[in-house]
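User: Teach me something about this protein's shape.
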Amino acid sequence: MTLVALVVHPERREAAEIAERAIRWLAAHGHHSLVVDDDAEVLDDGPIDLAVSLGGDGTMLRTVALTTARGIPVLGVNLGRLGYLTEVEPSGLEEALARFVAGDFQIEPRMTLEVSVKRAPGVASSTPRPSYVALNEAVVEKTVPGHTVRLAASIADRPFVTYAADGVLVSTPTGSTAYNLSARGPIVSPRLRAIVITPISPHMLFDRPLVLEPDEWIRLEVAPPRAGVLVVDGQTITTLEPGDAVEARAGDLPARIVTFGSRDFHAILRARFNLADR
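Assistant: First, the predicted structure itself:
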């Protein structure tokens, strides 16, 4: 008997309809299911065997955040437009569930980031949680239109440079095709373990992204005079005042993505960008 958690996009009627299909299929084959509330911060305790993300890449990111600490594998059903992270289309959901319960699947581990906020000395922490899991990226961005934010960057506890930019993005290889790509950062194979640092619209001579090895954790401290804001996988976490800092390092636990056969990353890139043969 398998217990499947369904994480459903709250504003897509199609997602709710597909969830009902999954519930019926699981019940008919002797398995159990539960639907995760939209505001859930953790999954209910219990022997959950699989989490199914019903939405686009945003829903997939939320599902990964809910499951990584417990090592629950995640299957993505694509209801969005790009679907870099999702594995199956809605029409193939029942077949995918059948293959999972039969053991006919693989787990593709994806590197995550552990992201934490360090308040300025003498300032009590107002951050809801001590750390956050990011599958794609953490970003420290400006809060005042028309002005930059200044971020003093240290790599592996060694001072590096103070960025003056619209923000600085810290990405995993998986996240290199997300916001990092829009910011003209490098595309990195998701099989690598690396940390990508990409300044966003930098107002300085040094404007190049960096690719670090996973042990080279990064600290971004907000320098005066303006505040910043931390965003993790598209979710605004907290405002950062001058003296506050964000630390991002390779997570101890990977996201466990369910696949059915080898995923050809380069073929996905070709399809998403409509790359023609030359």
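Now, about its shape. Residues 13-28 form the longest helix (16 residues). The mean pLDDT is 91. If you'd like, I can walk through any region in more detail.
User: That's plenty for now, thanks!
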